Amino acid sequence: DISSVHHQSNWCNWKRVSAAGLVIGSLTKISILLQMQCNSSTTLFSFFLPRPPTSSFISSSSSNPKSFTNCSQSSNHNNPHPILPSPDSHSHPNAATARIPTPPWVKGPLRLQPHELANLSNNPPKPRKPLESAEEKADKALTAKESGVRGKKAMSKIVRSIETLPGNQQQSPVVVDSSSFSLGSSDSDDANKKLPWVREEKVVRYRLKKDKVVTQAELVLDQDLLERLRAEAARMRIWVKVKKLGVTQRVVDEIKSAWETNELAMAKFDLPLCRNMDRAREIVELKTGGLVVWTWKDSLVVYRGCNYEVAKNSGISNMVDDDIYGIPGEELSLFQREGDRLLEGLGPRFVDWWMPKPLPVDADLLPEVVPGYMPPSRRWPPYGRPQLKDTELTSLRKLARILPTHFVLGRNRRLQGLAFAILKLWQNSNIAKIAIKWGVPNTDNEQMANELKRLTGGVLLLRNKFFIILYRGKDYLPSEVATLVSERETEIRRCHLDEESSRKKAADSVHIVVDPSLNSSKTGTLDEFRDIQNKFGGLVKGKKENELQLEAEKANLERELRIQERKLFILEMKIENSMRELTKLNSEWVPAENDADREILTDEERECFRKIAQKLRSSLVLGRRGVFDGVVEGLYQHWKHREVVKVITMQRTFTQVIYTAKSLEAESGGILVSVEKLSKGHAIILYRGKNYRRPQKFHSENLLTKREALQRSILMQRIGSLKFFAHQRRQAITNMRSELEQLQKSEERNGISKYVNQ
Prior knowledge:
Its main location: plastid. By secondary structure, the chain is an alpha/beta fold. The protein has helices at 2-19, 55-58, 65-75, 134-143, 152-163, 216-220, 223-234, 249-259, 277-288, 308-311, 317-324, 334-343, 390-402, 416-425, 445-456, 479-509, 526-588, 603-615, 629-639, 654-668, 706-757, and strands at residues 98-100, 110-112, 240-242, 264-269, 291-296, 299-303, 361-362, 407-409, 431-436, 459-463, 467-471, 620-622, 644-649, 671-677, 682-687.
């Protein structure tokens, strides 16, 4: 066979090339991935060892792919492990061979026997699970894990599974109380526990939607006209601004002036009416006589009406009474009816009220002065406490929150009419709730509350910029009870007077004989003592008061003198301790002496160096620590780059500046050029010298460190302040001692004068 001979020659060439030392010769095993798709969709992996083909392998005829696939599948079905080629495998000349993919360096095709192929997969194919019946699937739906157990879809699946249970259609439905179902014995404690899927029914309270209020425009106007007006209102961009005072006469005039050119007028509301647009609509319709056809957020549009020319001059007074009790035909709630009954007869209502009804009483329209008004009489029961406890105060504030507003106030003084109305209200209610008008200038809630407390005698529960709440108090007496108490007291007083008059009549009817000789002299009697007291009691009392004042003043001075002496002693002890610490620090500082052989600078050189230093931007600032080793090191760092250094100090006195300049000159070894006065502080100019050499060691052993210099500065400042306060104490002690000497001299003079008078 020509093909087999050609393949054998290629194999010999490949073996010869591998023996020559190429990279291919270093390989001992070549792995080839063979993926074949069989009927059972099994993936087979095989490998082979590079070896010379045998005679049986060479003489094999062309392979059939189908037969090879079937053979390989049947041979490897039960043995998934790799099978190496055995010598017995070459004894079948008629075995089918397979064409195996070869690497790029192999020139001819490669063929293997089916038994030489192996399955390299470690995991054998898993056996198929038996198919489940429909009944098993239906039962499994109840116990299998479901995602989203509380969802609607999962619950609907469970319901359908229960309906499709086997035998569910034939048997009658049985109602099982899952809450009473238990596992195990009934005597155990766990028997009464509920199962995990049993849940208690929760009462869900949904928020009710607010019923839409049917406006007057919807009742009166046609639907087509109303839609046209609303479409025009949505395009309006010019409005009347309604401020905090509400719908005043100015707002009404502006709306009516807008009606002269247009049938619609727009109003935009500020606080507080913008929070209750239903109430704002009622007020606008009441005061203008128009109809609100469109409302959006804090704006509303008013329609003047079809018969505006006829009705524009009609008054508002005929509609005010209807607004107090609501729109005609409107059903009032029990809260509104009770509030109107409570406020009936207290005064005129506030029509511009920005909160729900009932409308409160306008306190500004009540009389400022009530003739003969007096605060009510108050009496608390015996063994009672008129003050409120914290718990009582809290409960009363909670009660006042839900009550309607009784009065609306806008002035600070002259509130007798309001106080009289509050007393009348207190006969039916314990609490009076007063709102403060918005937008009224110069209102002071504190002054209002104090004035009402003075006029009514009530207890203030709450006061802020919106409300004032007054409680009538535990000692409050209603007018009827107060009248009864006053009548009873008058009757008791009349009885006492009658008894006293009858006692006097009985004493006058009895005659007592008295010897006149007994009344001839007053010596040693009570009348004599009273006469002496009347004559000389004032003088003796005046003298005693003066003596007591002198003694009290002397005692106060002596006590104050002892206190000041004690404070002075403490200050002196502190000064002594600070001086001891300062002396210890000063002993560590040994100032250097000036070198006798110093360089001499001419006046021209000094002037030149001074001008150079004035132009320098860099400088060395001297702080509160003064001259220490860090300052000298800074001088050396400056002199590294320039000949002149400028040191700025904030010391006030010129003598301290000169002392600092000489210290710097001595410690650094430089030459002092000049001392210049700046806008803030002084500038010390130092020249390093012509023979300057940079020192090897910057720190000076004779100077203080940075920490010690700060401590020394603090001690010096402390000693100065302590000495100042000690001087003040000494001055005060000296003044007190002089005053005490004067008091002693005055006492001596008073004692001598008293002895002379005696």
